[in-house]
Amino acid sequence: MSWRRWCKPGHPAQLVLGLSIWGIWFIAMYAGLSVVCQFVAPAPQDGAANWLNYALFGLTLIVITLLLLLAWRGWRYCQSVQHDNRPQRFVGYVSTVLYLMAALATLAGALPVLVLPPCI
Amino acid sequence: MTDMKKATASAADINKLAQIWANLPGWGSLAAVNHSTIGLRFMVTGMVFFLIGGVLAMLIRTQLALPEQSIISADVYGQLFSMHGSVMMFLFAIPVLEGLAIYLIPKMTGSRDLLFPRISALGYYCYLFGGIIIMFSLVLGIAPASGWFMYTPLSSSEFSPGPGSDFWLLGITFVEISAMAAGIELTVSILCSRAKGMTLNRMPLFCWYILVMALMIVFGFPPLILASILLELERAAGMPFFTVAAGGDPLLWQHLFWLFGHPEVYIIFLPAAGIVSTLIPVFSGRPIVGYRWVVIGIILTGFISFGLWVHHMFTVGIPQLAQAFFSVASMLVAVPTAIQVFAWLATLWYGKVVFRLPMLWICGFLLIFVCGGLTGVMLALVPFNWQVHDTHFVVAHMHYVLVGGMFFPLIAGLYYWLPLVSGRMPSEKIGRCGFWLTFTGFNLTFLLMHLTGLLGMPRRVYTYEAGLGWDWLNLLSSVGSFIMAIGVAMVLLDLLLHFWFGKRASANPWHADTLEWALDMPPAQYNFASLPVVTSRQPLWHDPTLPQRIAAGEGGMTNTTSGRRENWGTSAVSARVQQNLHLPGNSWWPLCSALALAAVCISLLCRWYPLALLAAAGALVLLLCWSWHNGANLQPAASPADAKLALPLESQSTDGPGRWGMVVTLLANGALFMALLFGWFYLWTAAPQWSAPADGPLPVTLLLLCGALASVAVWQFNRLSVQLADGQDSHLHRQLWLCVLTGSAHFILLLSLFMMAPLAYTSSAHDAVIMVILLYLLGHAGLAVILTMLQALRVARGYVSKQRPYEPQVVKPFWFYYLAVYWLSIALFFILPLGWGPVL
Predict the structure, then answer these.
(1) Is the N or the C terminus of chain A less surrounded, counting Cβ atoms within 10 Å?
(2) Whether residue B136 has pLDDT greater than 50
(3) Residue A41 pLDDT > 90
(4) What residues of A are in contact with residue B299 (Cβ under 8 Å)?
């Protein structure tokens, strides 16, 4: 099994990669929040402006950047495939949109860290 | 059709095909494995359970029709609503949709059967026996009474001392074997055996929906299976996973249950939406608008639905930020659903809609489901959720989503595919009457129930005082429910009567576009006389002569000289023909294995543990014997029809559906392991009285040594399977036994460690979890050794060789999976906690 093949934009694994990244981000956010709140919770009086929220939002920005890069790569691949009905083009198109959707879902999910304190 | 052998399907060929694919007569039909038979059995059994669940609902509504009634006692009422929910969710909704998928998928994808037909049969029997066991508790008056979600501590032995909870936990777990079997089978079949040319972008949308549903089952059901096992262990063996005083936490149950429970809603909705996406284009007379966007919507739904489970738990005391996090995710899931709704509306808008009977139900679905979706978005808002939590508003929302989102499309689908099954048309008059009664009754019952909930009526109360403002609403809801029941009865009567009185259906009576309508009505057991080649997303619209050409034998696999059940194996994306698959035929193994598993279940219920152990051993032996007989045949018959295509048999290749099946099974297994890992970390971080010893329960050095042995065994197995794939089998037999030896050494060392571990598993949740993970590892290690041993024996008998290198390639992922979970377990359950220090 060649992992390089899996990473190519037209490979069907791309259909689930973007949302899998979203899923890992989701788990990291929820689990990270729970563990940190249990052991080193930021002071409640800091409100939303505390190191934990900054860290969670920083992680979010990294994930969004990665997803947008993957979407851009997928879009370029779609442009390069000649025949309109090729399944690879279909996979490329669908996965590109799914990367964008995953990026949007990541951004939407992280917006509360800008306004809410984490451990209350 | 350049590389397809053209031939004429002679009467002799057709007779031979029919003979090869026929079920055994009389009692022998219990050994049937064909997808049409199994699919119909699933659906008929599901409808029987639906009737039982419906009667329970009627009893509930009778009791609530007037205030302060005592027709039903509080205890019986608890059993009724618990069983109503459990029956409808586990014994009706999922199985009936699985049955529909099992029946339709091969027909839609141009195949002759699903790829693991005996697994389908096993799944059916597990479902049937599990369902009977659960229903038996109701007959005995000892049914579970803790709600269909069985929250702890109410369902724990302290507050539910009778066997009711045990019936639920063991019975539902038994039924879930069936769901898992269907999930794995459908995934692999859709990916590996579509018609030649049916590329991913030409696949019918129904198949996309079922593919995502099947994968959701694979990932979604294991958390509930784990939760059920843990709760049963707590009830039967006193292992305190959910007991606060011993370091457990009842909220862990809620997390594990809803990790399954919320995706479950979409597992039910997606196939139903697949029916809608199939029917709307047919009755609009045009292809669906935005095929690609619908696929995007399906995949998005599949993923995002796993990120919402906490919205069922907003009132249990969760930090604001976490609530907001899940609230946003809950609202996000409306986006992919909306994509699909807009695609359906656009298709209706641009098409010329014919309002035949199935379309009526689709229109009912659109109206009800959109309303249910909107109240779902309301419930995603935390403050509103708090207000209506555990009220009848939630009950009304749930029924709008589930009845609107599943039942209405299901009836539409049943009416639509009825002519295919029976060759007859339903009655439009009775059908329309049934629809309007059901639609009116449903809305009368549940639209008003929103108001009852907003006025504060809690759910799961067996009666209420007069004068609280709920009286007239409840009375009308009850009247509505009986109107709905009459409507449903009319529909079922119509479905039944049409077998005798329905008009003969013409070929492709709805002018549909998908391949199942290229078949005879009712279809032959082998489906296609010759396997079709697809060049379009709408094959029957693109080529109306396709049915005749298939029947004339112009497709593939027309030769029957092998005497075997044959099908093409195709590539997942491009649907290129790659293999000649020999599918297993009628067999008693599934029934015997399911009976042995039922014996395990009943013995556990009766607390006859030695018998349970014996039955479990029997089940294992039966399953291993089955695997032995299902393997490669020594003398595969030649298949001249496909000789020109030079198609290898699956056993002659190094990749194929069996290997895919193993990988998908391991994904499900991995989901169970991850759920256990989640439980471990959850208890560590959230259980109020979690305590862990300063030193680990087992010596780390010995665990590392044990891991080294497992690593060597995997290295050995990997090396021999790579050599075999390269065509070398000179030392294969010896290498396999060496691997068995190393694996056995690993197993024995691990078993010794387990035996010497000082685990206080009845007084400490920490030790109970350690015990479970050790048992999990031991079970896998033992199975890996047994499978390798079987491979060695099969090499000795010539079933595995360089000409037939397939089977070790199927076993290999299991070894790799085991090695990965072993090292992860050692790191996360034994080494990482050393860094925590003593937690008391």
Answers:
(1) N
(2) yes
(3) no
(4) 15-16, 19, 94, 98
Residues B645-670 have pLDDT tens digits of: 578 888 888 889 999 999 999 999 99
pLDDT of B636 reads: 52
> Confidence class of residue A40 from pLDDT cuts 50, 70 and 90?
confident
Q: How far is CA B803 from CA B649, B724, B726, B736, in A?
A: 10, 9, 11, 17
Residue B413 has, within 13 A of its CA and on its CB side, a CA count of: 24
What class, spelled out in words, does domain B691-840 have in CATH? mainly alpha
Put simply, the answer to whether B296 touches A94 (Cβ < 8 Å) is: yes
DSSP A84: T
Task: Number of A to B CB contacts under 8 A, please give it.
Answer: 92
User: Tens digit of pLDDT for each residue in B223-254?
Assistant: 999 999 999 999 999 999 999 999 999 999 99
Contacts of B329 in chain A (CB under 8 A): 26, 105, 109
Q: Do B320 and A15 count as a contact with CB atoms less than 8 A apart?
A: no
Closest Cα of chain B to A15: distance in Å?
A: 8
- Nearest Cβ partner for A34 among B202, B574, B686: B686
Where does residue B698 fall: left (phi above 0), alpha (psi -120 to 50 degrees), or beta otherwise?
beta
> What is the share, in percent, of chain A residues with pLDDT greater than 70?
96
**Which of B55, B26, B28 is closest to B482 using CA atoms?**
B55
Among candidates A22, A87, A27, A47, which has minimal Cα distance to B333?
A22
Nearest to B424 by CA among B413, B411, B415, B434: B415
Cα within 13 Å of Cα(B814), Cβ side: 22
Asked if A34 and B574 come within 8 Å (Cβ–Cβ), the reply is no
| Segments making up each domain of chain A, as ranges | 13-114
Cβ distance B292 to A15 less than 8 Å, yes or no, reads no
Facing B201 at nearest CB: one of A34, A90, A105 = A90
Name the residue with higher pLDDT: B772 or A49.
B772
| Whole-number Å distance between alpha carbons of A86 and A80 | 12
**Residue of B601, B718, B535 lying closest to B131 (CA atoms):** B601
Percent of chain B residues past pLDDT 70, beyond the cut:
97
Q: How far apart are CA B283 and CA B275, in angstroms?
A: 12
CA distance A87 to chain B (A): 6
The tokens for A70 are 């993957």
Closest CA to B309 of B246, B227, B233: B227
Judge: B321–A118 Cβ closer than 8 Å, yes or no.
Answer: yes
Reading the block at residue B477, the tokens are: 């809801």
How many residues belong to chain A? Answer: 120
Which of B296, B321, B686 lies closest to A116 in CB terms?
B321
Contact B642, B579 (CB under 8 A): no
**Residue of B249, B303, B310, B311 to mutate when probing chain A, most A C-beta within 10 A:** B303
Interface test with A, best of B187, B196, B201 (most A CBs within 10 A): B201
pLDDT (0 to 100) of residue A80: 87
CA distance B575 to chain A (A): 10
The helix (H) or strand (E) run that includes residue B836 is: helix B832-836
Angle at B189 between CA B16 and CA B784, to 5 degrees: 110
At B541-599, the pLDDT tens digits run 999 999 999 998 888 888 888 888 999 999 999 999 999 999 999 999 999 999 999 99
Predicted ipTM beyond 0.90: yes
Q: Which residue of A has its CA nearest to B201?
A: A87
Between strands B565-570 and B577-583, the pairing is antiparallel
Would you call A116 and B200 a contact, using CB atoms and an 8 Å cutoff? Answer: no
